[in-house]
Write a structure and sequence with these properties.
The structure is a homotetramer. By secondary structure, chain A is an alpha/beta fold. Chain A has helices spanning 15-26, 40-50, 58-63, 80-88, 103-116, 130-138, 141-144, 158-164, 170-186, 285-299, 307-326; strands at 6-11, 30-36, 53-55, 69-72, 92-96, 120-123, 147-157, 190-198, 208-215, 220-229, 237-245, 249-253, 259-263, 266-268, 277-278, 281-282, 330-331. In chain A, the strands form four sheets. Chain A has a seven-stranded mixed beta sheet with strand order 12-11-7-10-9-8-17. A six-stranded parallel beta sheet of chain A has the order 3-2-1-4-5-6, sandwiched between helices. The first copy, chain A, has a two-stranded antiparallel ribbon with strand order 13-14.
Chain lengths: 338, 338, 338, 338
């Protein structure tokens, strides 16, 4: 392509899809052409505000030849159908994470994309977060040496778990971030996992999952997932990551972002990185992710993450789920893609 | 203008100018045409790497009619000449802060811009920082009520003071950020100042300046400036801001950005907001400032900050300098622009 | 004295007096003999629980010859009478800070103590706080070099200001801590002050006072006082201190003490230093202050702080009050005691 | 006993023993009579400075009838012999943690103490730390509800691992703190463990051990142990603890204690809780632990922790060691003492 702007559509207009649509409409290198959602009232309203067309059926959106690429932001368990259809329609695809809700499903998408010869990027947003990207840089073997142990934490308030109910799971909604980050930053695949879960707060799903994992290069890892924190946790979530190597170490903590509003009811944190609104536009990691996607498609550059790594993250999630159910360690097959 | 990309030049290629040039070359809505610096070796090298032309004399750059706008990043005390020349040449101007090194000089630039009828934006980067912008939003009277007291801190390591020597001053290099932020967030001009300074560490200029200020709306303010911290201060600087109102309060602290590298020598912080490099491109506040400048010029939208506010900040700096020298409180004239 | 336990009484049983009484009853080197308060119900109850006698009139308590020493914890403005009476009765005196509510009053107490030849210690609790004491140690000239600038912050929620009303003031209730700490850590007296105050939240007194001060040794200082924060400020207060010298620097921040309770309503900090209750006893700074007082009286050792320093702190408070009212800088007389 | 001071001895004068001896000499309710160490030069010197007698052979110290109680601070692996001998000599015993280096050894001490009818307290210092004790209080079922998940972190710099070499292990030197805290705060024993370890930095022992555990009450737990951090980690260690329950949650982080010294080489944290020196005396948790021990022995009060809980912690450590070696989950026997 040699255009200045990528012509785009967005399928699924929930929490993430609404933001994707707005960013597609705001960026200088994209032009939002159409949106689609099963909720026609919601979708029509967003389309009007952003100056785009609305299609109740996403197949109609995919059939248009004035659209080069689509963001797919349907619920976690509903990724396969639209992703396969978009590939068949020859669109470049930006698919929200997780790639799919099982390795088997993710492989269906992989095959469709390979057969159609279209480009696929999975929206692993941490690859665009200055904190995680700098941690990745700090973990370069020239500086870090050989990684010894890595810890990842992603905890959220119970309101999130109650809202998502059975639509997703702690592993697929939150855990995919850190499983991918672990393998990316450690520069080695996870080969064995052991997990335990607890369920005491009534949220319709597990409350917490703790896991110890092994990497092919001999490092050990720890995954700390919870979405059962009381709703008063500042900013609503707490993520952290650390890696200690034979040479140096690096860590991050994204809970306190250095900004608080204080009322008589207490303090309230803020998002200064993911998708804050600044001067009437969404900025931050998600904006930069979509800007990168558009730029790479327009100019034929490679994506920062090949989709094979997103697929491998799903394989680890499958193993974690199995271990938490069986109570026994589970081995993970090594990567076969890219 | 109805182009997709703004054709730009950069004058002055030091710490800031080098970053401006690179961002002009990387953004989807700008095209870097030429750069200029008195150091031909440095300038030629940057031009080559970014695929732009080099002009040893900035007047040659300004004479080109394939350039719509320029970033002026010369040292603080050398803003007037290139800014006046750029205005005379009809270019839109993005001028690095502070607008000038005295109110008298800033007024010369203001007159030149008004006479030429060109657009001028002063690079007050905090207007693009998600932390400060959210603090500004939190200080909306509907939420905050009437502001009671505001505190701003900007402290840096002595290496900075030693490097800049007599080229700048603590007030004009660092202080302009917070004087502008104070008046912006308080939504009221500073009317009276009292300052004291200290000079004990040999840096060729003052080490610290402490001031108490009054606002037209009755609030009080405190300015805490230092560039005499030992060089081991993590991240090299420490900025903070807080506002307490009759209804609520908000604060930020940008010292610990939640990311650290640890070696046997100690921890080392990181910049995750100003101009971090992510996936081979500069992202963050400075990139967003230039993106906004280009977008506003291309599409005829207003800048987030009118230059009259930048001029008023310089008037307060003049008063602070005078008070620190005389040891007596100094009154400040109220704004007359925009 | 060569006893193992100091026989003590407590006069005034409010927030601080109640804690003093309990600590006198719990420590291994004190024995609480009697307590006194104008509220007979409150006082009688405390006396019963702690196994001590109660006197409605503190003169009766002072008349007992089985009491060696007294804690005086009456409201700030009511220190002179009981302190002078205790001195006349020959008791060793532990007087809660501030020494008095004006330099003139403090000097009356000083004269009474000198005439009676009794020991006096003013309860400047920061002299027993491991954070401030280590900061004092870090500011030793051998390490710090010559001090350049010092900043002290003490901010509290508006509930405190509303509760104390006209009984105290921001300077005398909170400010005395930092004025004393400034002169102690800087190892030099404050010689000039300039202050401004604001009053917009209805608390019956000023909301905030900001000041810039000069030290005899050429350092500059900044005082940041407020008790107008919304009540949701975690832990209810925020204190900080920093000193930058020609050689090194040190700082402390006592707001986040590393412990939080989180409910659906938000986080809630905790006191882990001042007077936390651990295993059914009060521990921390206040306990250590009283333990030191008893030990020094029993064994004829000197107090960590001579009372002349407490008197000088009150002189600076007087000057700050005057400056905040007049709007002009005020000079402070240099110390004449000890 | 009805004395005012407990007459004490200290056996083993290393890092902890030296501090014990000094505190025994400084407290108002103890009197240090004698010390013992295999290093006669070191021991003689400490004895002289503290005004106590020195015995090269600890049996001679235990044979004295002017000693009521002893602190045993020998290396981890050398607890059994002196503890059994002290019990046989009828002394009250304050034994540094861990109780012993295996459950079998700990049980030998337990039998000796029960047979001799002497009092034994194991020095689990976290039981005296205001942060952990307040976390324990916050985890009261009336507030916390039913515990869902608990996480404990204890990480130190590699210098510690290199210094201790084969004398101790990550589990017994550091891990015992958190295993005890977990069972204490969760109010339920650990029944199953799974652990993995890594060894890449040459320290003569494992670098890190990560574990997932199960509690009898259905909660899950995570243990994060490392002593392979680069030596520049501020304060040299990083401990954290969190518990999330069905009603509320609480956490602590003891890494940043709110006090830093900054030089050109970087920041340096400080200990403000464990055993800081304030006004020439050791204060903090260790002092309070010994004060409690002396008070409880003198006055016949119970210790805050029965030794059966210290024994159970050792059983969990045994299981963690076994799991890390076998790679399989290991069950833990439930408590049988007290």
């Amino acid at each position: 392509m040699t255009k200045d702007r990528l012509r785009t559509g967005v399928i699924g207009l929930g929490f993430f899809g609404g933001r994707h649509a707005r960013i597609h409409a705001e960026l200088p290198n994209t032009r939002l052409v159409a949106v689609s959602d099963i909720d026609a009232a919601l979708g029509g309203d967003i389309a009007r505000r952003l100056g785009a067309d609305f299609h109740a059926d996403y197949h109609a959106l995919l059939a248009r030849d004035d659209i080069d690429a689509v963001s797919i932001c349907t619920p976690d368990r509903c990724h396969v159908e639209p992703a396969v259809a978009a590939a068949a329609a020859g669109k470049a695809v930006l698919l929200e994470k997780p790639m799919a809700h099982s390795a088997r499903e993710a492989e269906r998408i992989a095959r469709a994309v390979e057969e159609a010869g279209v480009r696929l990027m999975v929206g692993h947003i941490l690859r665009f977060d200055p904190r995680y990207v700098q941690l990745y840089a700090a973990a370069d073997p020239a500086t870090l040496g050989d990684p010894v142990h890595l810890r990842a934490k992603r905890n959220a308030i119970r309101e999130v778990a109650q809202r998502l109910g059975a639509e997703s799971s702690i592993l697929f909604y939150m855990g995919v971030h850190d499983v991918d980050a672990m393998q990316w930053i450690c520069r080695s695949p996870i080969t064995r996992v052991y997990a335990q879960k607890a369920e005491k707060v009534a949220t319709g799903n597990e409350n917490a999952l703790y896991a110890v994992v092994n990497f092919a290069n001999g490092a050990i890892g720890m995954l700390d997932y919870s979405w059962s924190w009381p709703n008063g946790l500042p900013a609503g979530y707490w993520a952290a990551f650390e890696v200690v190597g034979t040479g140096s170490a690096a860590w991050l903590d994204v809970r306190d972002q250095g900004f608080q509003v204080v009322t008589d009811d207490g303090p309230r944190g803020a998002d200064t990185h993911l998708w804050p609104e600044v001067n009437d536009r969404i900025v931050g990691d998600l904006r930069d992710e979509i800007l990168h996607f558009a730029d790479a498609v327009l100019n034929g550059r490679s994506f920062v993450q090949p989709w094979g790594e997103a697929l491998q993250a799903v394989r680890v999630l499958d193993a974690l789920r199995e271990s938490a159910e069986s109570g026994a360690p589970v081995d993970v097959a090594t990567p076969d893609h890219q």
